[in-house]
Amino acid sequence: MKARDLLHLATESLARARMRSLMMLIAMAIGVASVVVLTSLGEGARRYVTGEFRALGTDLLIVLPGRSETTGIQPGMFAGETPRDLTLGDAGALLRLPDVERIAPLVIGSAPVSAGELSREVPVIGTNSDFLTIRNLRMAQGDFLPPGELDRDMAVCVIGSKVRRELFPRGDALGQAVRVGERRFRVIGILGDSGRAIGFDLQELVLVPVSAAQQLFNTESLFRILVQSRDRDAMPRVQQAVRATLMQRHQGEEDVTVITQDAVLATFDRIFTALTLTLAGIASISLAVAGILIMNVMLVAVSQRTAEVGLLKALGARQAQITAIFLAEAILLSIAGAAVGLALGYAASWAIGRIYPSLPVGAPVWAVLMAVGIAVASGVVFGLLPARRAARLDPVTALSGRK
Amino acid sequence: MASRPSAADRKQVQMIDLRAVSRHFQVGEQLVKALDDVSLAFAAGDYVSIMGPSGSGKSTLLNVIGLLDRPTSGGYVLDGRDTTGMSDDELAAMRSRKIGFIFQSFHLVPRMTAFENIELPMVLASVPPAERRLRVDKVLTDLNLTDRAHHRPDQLSGGQRQRVAIARAMIMEPTVLLADEPTGNLDHVSGADVLKSLEALNARGLLLLVVTHDDEVAARARRHVRMRDGKVVIDQRTAPEAAPP
What is the ipTM of this complex? Predict the structure, then answer.
């Protein structure tokens, strides 16, 4: 029997048993579509998070006090020594390194902020003018913190839009005075809502010069220093130089942790890839269910068509040919179901993308290939049993229509 | 025909040769002997009726001859080839090339047109499409069915359906035509039509075996086999083996 004839026989019988074919097609389509939709959601989440991190800059190093990269016991622990703080001096030294474009020291705390009668507790970040560029922040109104020496204490601040609304419900905030903790600051700018600062709501934030924050929270030490290199290629050199410089400044002790944005990115990437895999696995269950449904419906089809099988045998069909005819039907259905499922899945993903524009949905290629592969494979596997049952029917009883 | 063939020669031209064939079924506790030690031989081109009450074994006989059923014991030589011990696929190949079936209930595939039903045995035998078309067209012309080629069975009359089935049975140019109650579901006129078509094929040299309940149908054959309880009780010739010239 020729492949073209086989295909013709299979499509013809599927087309005639419209309801049955439709049911199986829908089952398979739902299976494939759910794999596509779920994995594209997982992939969307992964891309969103990694995108956020990448937007923070892959040319960024984060320096934090204390050594947490390596495990083991540090000698200082026994001496009761705590790691040395990161200071503004360290930050200044890093800025002077070659290939370092800009740095932003960070002091973070929380303080009551008030204007007139109104007051509330708000996260306060002490930093410098370069923070604006490093974090891709946008100003809604006014200016960001002015450039200048790191240790220059100025009584100016930048506030988030929500803080502005709450402290200055009517009227302009620019130029007005706010009290942060015990100190008074003049509002020189209002943050726009776009830009990235993971872990903080940009609308609910007060930014002050770093030395002002140090006084406010009565601390010499920095929470972090963000270091931006001139370009990505310079990253390893910069990382090396940052380590060496800080080690030198800390009496030969390597007591800081330098992490790259890439390392963080890779971690999140792994987490979300695992998430997507899990979703794919869950969705695959529906594919298996669809496969079992195909098997059931094919078994019914075989018993409905015993007389036809008997006839085919009388006309000289070999067992392998009868197996092939029924198997071709199951496989064709699976392929058609997979195609419909892909279309549905992509349509749904597209719709989700339209509803949540910030979520970069898109099914990963491996998931699509896997879904189609499993669909076709389940057509083969679950179609085989009914097909073989048909092929093994006794021609005499089959012709008489008995089962 | 110059001379009568000798007995030895006639042995050579037996198309079907059943030797002490038995077919037993176990039904519950009871052993049913559907065929009980039957020895029969049919020559190529003969026209044979097989009659007998229900359960006499005539259908089983037809199934065994048609290679749909295997004898429990005994031997069966079809066109010089011993079919005992053949694999299922070898039997399928023999059916494809040697045997055409006509059923009481036609057994047309309902979703296929007349053309496709007739074509089906050639599809299974991997005959190229162009040749299939030629052969089907010719058979349709022979059976006066050309204008029904693209009708499905439910759009055909009973007589037309059976003629489509005959076309399908002969499309592979078999040497044996097995008809099981071919007129059983037809009115008198269509029945006569169908018999004429079958007899035309017989006239072209096909061995025609007709199982029937109808004495009138049976009377048209040249040799008459009567069965009872799995045994041949009468085997009678009313006309010479080959059709008179």
Answer: 0.88
